[in-house]
Amino acid sequence: MLNEDVLTYVESLIPERPQYVEQIEEFALKHDVPIMEKSGIEVLLLLLTMQQPKKIFEIGTAIGYSAIRMALSLPNTHIVTVELDEVRYKQAALHIKELGLENRIKLFLGDALLLSDDISKHGPFDAFFIDATKAKYSKFFDLYEPMLTKDGIIYTDNVLFKGTVARDRSELKTRRQRTLVRKLDEYNQMLFSKEGYTSTMIPVGDGLAVTRRKEV
Asked: Which residues bind Mg(2+) (predicted)?
């Protein structure tokens, strides 16, 4: 991960976002809603712009920030996104409606692990973005990877989890933290060892993993 001085410098270079985007960022900060860090989402948007996916599936809408950023950066892309928390789901729906993006962002409420039949009706997907409950990352991957197109790419946020995956777990204060970090480390190990796939990890934001099938 970038040290604080480098991160501050990098973020100072990021152009100003549209006013409504900055308002969502301010809302997230005020209400303690986790959204992608500035450097992380800029890298994600750059990669997606290069890829030009027609359909993206996102797990973890929160208040709609990343889905909206993707939709604005990719005007020909449709996004399906799912959020477990009802309050955040309603906030996301409001933000999406205010920006007139309902025709390109399909929002689901519920547990992604229970909605695969509904989600599959909107696939297959060219990109799959995982940014939800970290302990379930492996289950998300296994369930939705078959819905990926042949050249599809999986993007996973928070894979470094503030650097805790690289530390001695005995330093973590609670059993819950140790379990979460263990499962996240297992997910990362799986990404880099999964047969038929190649992965890389970019230490921006809270860590962004990029995974795609190997060419045959």
From this structure: 131, 157-158
